[in-house]
Description:
Blueprint: E1 6-15, E2 18-26, E3 29-33, E4 36-38, H1 45-57, E5 59-73, E6 80-93, E7 103-109, H2 111-116, H3 125-134
Parallel strand pairs: 1-6
Antiparallel strand pairs: 1-2, 1-4, 2-3, 2-7, 5-6
Amino acid sequence: MIWCPNITVAAVIEENGRFLLIEEETDAGLELNQPAGHLEQNETLIEAVIRETREEAACLFEPDALIGIYQWLHPVKQLTYIRFAFCGRIIEHFPDQQLDKGIIRTLWMTPDEIRACRPRHRSPMLLANLEDYLSGHRYSPQLIQYLLSSGNS
């Protein structure tokens, strides 16, 4: 068996001191997360975070900066997740768009409200992303280099 980590992206979006979260149905019940999801084949990390935010929150997201890269081992599933968290802004909302399967609703919460409901977080990466954002962590998205195949192995 070949080990392969799960590569994910997340959007940290603040408006008026509140942060956009999604409430989703999971195997563990209703949990909270940032708009987030898996990188798909042939897409960049930036494309993935824009797509996931559109699918899960019905918003067009414009990433400004990379907040950080996070590695987490799920304690039950024994799966490793590598998350690239981006911050940015919503440039358009699509109120008539149906949210992705399993997404119950979107919420706007303050940092204190998010901290107070930690048992409902889908993973510890939610709070880590938030705290790093609040601490001012910002890196240029150009830190991520996309290399095209040259045809050589």
